[in-house]
Structure formats: structure tokens, C-alpha cells
Design a protein that fits this description.
Length: 196
Amino acid sequence: LALWGILMTSSICLRQTDLKALIAYSSVSHMGLVTAAIIAQTPWGLTGAMTLMIAHGLTSSALFALANTNYERTHTRTLLLVRGLQLMFPLMSTWWLLTNLTNMAMPPTINLLGELFIISTLFNWSSPTIVITGMGTLITATYSLYMFLMTQRGSISTQFRLLPPTHTREHLTLVLHLLPLGLLIMKPALISGLFT
């Protein structure tokens, strides 16, 4: 049921037009992996669950912070209306890219470590689960790229030509989310060595 939930919520993400709803459903999808790992009750599964919960907590929070910076300037969360913000905010676009790459567990992020632990656990429990987890991973990559392209690329609407600039506090907030993720991959035993 947890694996089926991953596929369903990931598929819902592909149809979202509201940015915050997309991020929220993305969280539900990732927690499906955590639930499956906890139910498996193996040391690797519990390690993966702990790792992914910490990693996803930082990643999801960073995505919500980015969505809020967009909303404070454009006053809309509709993906079709907020295109092309890369031209206005190139540094914020870099934060969007890094956070989306972390969300879809690209190497060398700690998210990848957690997902690999969980996928290995589920594969040892039942080999056909590799098909479902593989599809979930593919859909996650698809909606993460969709979210990035919809918010950052394309031509900007004429109503958004004069937007207020981003502030240092917003960039500092994102540094405080992504820096721990980068540091944890250098010493993952801090969170992954709890159950092994």
C-alpha cells in the first residue's frame, strides 16, 4: 500500500498547477518510501528511513521557502503564470536548481543515500518492488524537472517586469537548508549509523 501510494501521489504531482500543492504531494510521495522502509523492519530500512526523513525535511522546507519567495513577488502560485523568473532572479534560480536536484536524489546528495538504503531493503524483501520503486523514482525526476522548468524557464509575463529584488535573508535561509545537506554527505554516519 505504501508503494502504491508513492505511484499515486507522484502521478498527482505531474498534474498540479499550484506550486505549493505540487511540493506538498511530493512530500507525501517521499514519505511513502519511508513508510515502506519502516514496515520492513530491517536495520538498512530503518537507517534509510531516518536518513531520508532528515534529508527530505531540509529539502521540502527549502522548496516551500522558494515557493514563498516567488509568491511574495508575483502574488500567485499558478505555475503557468510564474514562468521565466530565471531572467529576473538568476541566483534564486540557482537555488531552485540545487533544491530540485536534491529533491530527486541526484548524487552526491544524502537523499540518494536514504533512497538507496530503502530500495535495497525493499528489493531484498520482494524483488518485484524494484519495478514500483523504479517507476516512483522516474516520476519524481519528471515532476522535479517540470517544477523547475515551469517556474524558471520560458518567457516572463509582462506583468512581472518590475519585481522587487531578493533579500539577503532569503538567500541565507536557503544556505541554512542546503549546507547541512551538503555536509551530511561528507559524514553520513551522523544520521545513518543509528541502526546499523
